[in-house]
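agent: user wants the structure for Maleylpyruvate isomerase family mycothiol-dependent enzyme from Actinacidiphila oryziradicis. delegating to structure tool.
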Amino acid sequence: MDPAEVRSRVLDGHSRLRDLLSGLSDEAARRPSALPGWSRAHVLSHIEGVCLALARQARYAFRGEMVEPYDGGRPARDAAIEAGASRTAAELRRAVEDALGEAGAAWTAAGPQDWARPVRYRDGDLVAVLLSWWRELEIHTADADLGYRSDGWTRELCGHALDFLAPRAPQGVRLELVATDGPEARSYGTGEPYVVRGALADLTAWMAGRAPSGPLDGGGTPLPGLGPWP
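agent: tool returned. relaying tokens verbatim.
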């Protein structure tokens, strides 16, 4: 997809998340999310953090500079999620909305000449950071379990996410993903074929380590384990 189109999808996702947060109560924030071991507050705290971290990549790239996504690396990131999850619903809502505002300003400022700018994140370029934020935003908005689920993911997002998640395919087999609600199909790896059929969004959710909204058909055998996040 053209970076400007991805940016448009990202800004739509910002608006969706703001709407979902409008009625968040303290009780709802403390409830479990769709991610085992995390409350909704944990997911929202993570969304805030990764939103700011990736927007920072853009701001520095505009100046021709590179910086780590998180000061203090993964330990600082994890500590910030835990600390942020203790906030009230009103505090979480303001924090996420502020982060979305900062990210929206950063991404809107990017012009055609900026997408190839180098960044520290994954030693990539700015368009790769935008795509990463698109994935993070869509997946974690569904994780927050506030009324938006993986079956709401667009076919464009699913196609992009599946290609990104291809390294998770199990070793020693040729994993074939076949959408039952459209023409999409993916094949990863080599070896004996293992075919998984289901709705495109459900196949994507499974590859992302999330529970699909609908059934997946592995031909009568249990679905194989997947590798780590790429």
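agent: one observation worth passing along. Residues 3-148 form a domain with the Four Helix Bundle (Hemerythrin (Met), subunit A) fold (CATH 1.20.120.450).
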